[in-house]
């Protein structure tokens, strides 16, 4: 079974590691550690009843080792729920800018792969593209939030996304004990692009015309993690810059993913955009459309929500928009009933 292909021991993953190497009981745990909350299993997250609570002696506080064992035990129903299922994760934004958060996200991917989930990572890399454009003497240009992509910009986009960022992510996944396989939409006709409806203004910005996921199936079956840069080509071979959220949504539908997760720079969808405490934890398609009509979903959140709705309409079971700035947000979303953002259901 492919779990054996991943050599990183679970005890070395930061989510399960002790915040204090001292083996003595520590009644004052690291305040940065993720607090454990009682699980309230949602039918969409697991159809398996939770494991009975483990009773421990009340004579002394639990040791770090006992805490790790309790976490693993409580995670069992969620692991059983998602084992063998495909999860597509779109990665970018603030979680990509910070080296610490990047290591955090990738180690979570390796852990989830280790326990039997099939992970597909789709990435962008806007800030680094901007930096390289400036280094080559070109000012980045945008129109309605989308990058204007002339011939020179397209060269830089492909160099940065399919070259530098993609291979760095693959190398780090491999270093963490997983097996990353770097691809872009051009490989094996994975994504075929067509010009955007605003191509007269945006240039080589593309939409996804077709997805051929056949190259992904043996990679996933062997327990590897495909890492996909969001550039593609049209039928004539012309390269296009494709929005990473859109690419992830179309790939999720094509591979029959159980779940699509978009890592973003916000907490999720807010009932009141001015109130960070108004996070909508779960909503269906009808509810999200109502929020869009009422103007509660606007700006940069519209294409993300639209991508989620489109993937759900094509058979993806749930789509989540979560805060990539929160450490271990992927594990919180998949291995707990609390989640880490907004989950949209069909």
From TrEMBL:
Ranges of biased composition (kind: Pro residues): 20-32
Gene Ontology cellular component annotations, sorted alphabetically: chloroplast thylakoid
Positions of the Aspartate/glutamate/uridylate kinase domain: 85-323
Presence of the UniProt keyword Transferase in the record: yes
Pathway per the UniProt entry: Amino-acid biosynthesis; L-arginine biosynthesis; N(2)-acetyl-L-ornithine from L-glutamate: step 2/4
SUPFAM superfamilies for the chain: Carbamate kinase-like
Name used for this protein in its record: acetylglutamate kinase
Lineage of the organism: Eukaryota, Viridiplantae, Streptophyta, Embryophyta, Tracheophyta
Gene: LOC120278411
């Amino acid at each position: 079974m492919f779990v054996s292909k991943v050599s990183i021991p679970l005890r070395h993953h930061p989510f399960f590691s002790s915040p204090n190497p001292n083996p003595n009981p520590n009644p004052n745990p690291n305040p940065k550690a993720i607090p454990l909350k009682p699980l309230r299993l949602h039918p969409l997250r697991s159809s398996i009843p939770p494991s009975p609570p483990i009773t421990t002696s009340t004579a002394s506080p639990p040791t770090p080792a006992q805490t790790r064992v309790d976490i693993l035990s409580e995670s069992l129903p969620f692991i059983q729920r998602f084992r063998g299922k495909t999860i597509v994760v779109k990665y970018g934004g603030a979680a990509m800018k910070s080296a610490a958060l990047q290591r955090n996200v990738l180690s979570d991917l390796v852990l989830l792969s280790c326990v039997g989930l099939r992970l597909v990572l789709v990435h962008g890399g806007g800030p680094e593209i901007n930096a390289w454009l400036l280094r080559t003497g070109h000012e980045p240009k945008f129109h309605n939030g989308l990058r204007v992509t002339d011939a020179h910009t397209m060269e830089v986009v492909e160099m940065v996304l399919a070259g530098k960022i993609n291979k760095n992510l693959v190398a780090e996944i491999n270093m963490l004990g997983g097996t990353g396989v770097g691809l872009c939409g051009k490989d094996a006709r994975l994504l075929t692009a067509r010009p955007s409806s605003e191509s007269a203004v945006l240039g080589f910005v593309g939409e996804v015309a077709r997805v051929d996921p056949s190259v992904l199936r043996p990679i996933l079956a062997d327990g590897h993690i495909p890492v996909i840069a969001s550039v593609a080509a049209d039928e004539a071979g012309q390269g296009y810059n494709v929005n990473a959220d859109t690419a992830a949504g179309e790939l999720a539908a094509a591979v029959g993913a159980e779940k699509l997760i978009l890592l973003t720079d916000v907490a999720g969808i807010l009932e009141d955009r001015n109130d960070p405490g108004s996070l909508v934890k779960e909503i269906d398609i009808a509810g999200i459309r109502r929020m869009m009509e009422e103007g509660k979903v606007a700006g940069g959140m519209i294409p993300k929500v639209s991508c989620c709705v489109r993937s759900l309409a094509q058979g993806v079971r749930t789509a989540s928009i979560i805060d990539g700035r929160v450490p271990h947000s992927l594990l919180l979303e998949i291995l707990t009933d609390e989640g880490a953002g907004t989950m949209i259901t069909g």
